[in-house]
Amino acid sequence: MLFKEKINYKLPGCRPDKLHQDQAAGWNAYGDFYITMGIAVDENRMENAALSFLKSGNYEKRLMSEEWCCLSEADPPYQPEDDYVLLEADPGDVIFFDSYVPHGSPANTSDRSRRNIFLTFNKLSDGDMRAKYYQDKWAKYPPNEVKNARPGGSYRV
After folding, report:
1. Which of 24, 22, 19, 25 is nearest to 52 (CA)?
2. Which of 59, 69, 93, 125 could link 65 by a cystine bridge, Cβ 3.0 to 4.6 Å?
3. Which pTM value belongs to this model?
């Protein structure tokens, strides 16, 4: 069942995304397991912030940090470096990952944008949580407006 959708824009000069689990973004309020389908719109390369994932599959299906916390303050490459893989992708390529796999991305040091579409699905047995998720998100993190922009451009997934 579709839980949420978003487009991630990583513009030239954009900061790295810290190592994290998507489940830590308050999703436990709606369900305990999600699958995300990522669709590459642009080339995903090291220079323009391709995603980096723990490659072993030997991670527990549980939160490894407190909610809203990243797993590490370190920027990619994550350590131990051999445990992570940078997934380079071409436009139209599709990747799937669950809400517990540790991942992040380096800074976009190129002159090219990196856009990806993400569709996240919850278990059918958890019900249709999409409307409630977006109502809660709107109440807690309203969209930026020029006259009321949040300090530092903060925004949470």
Report:
1. 19
2. 69
3. 0.86
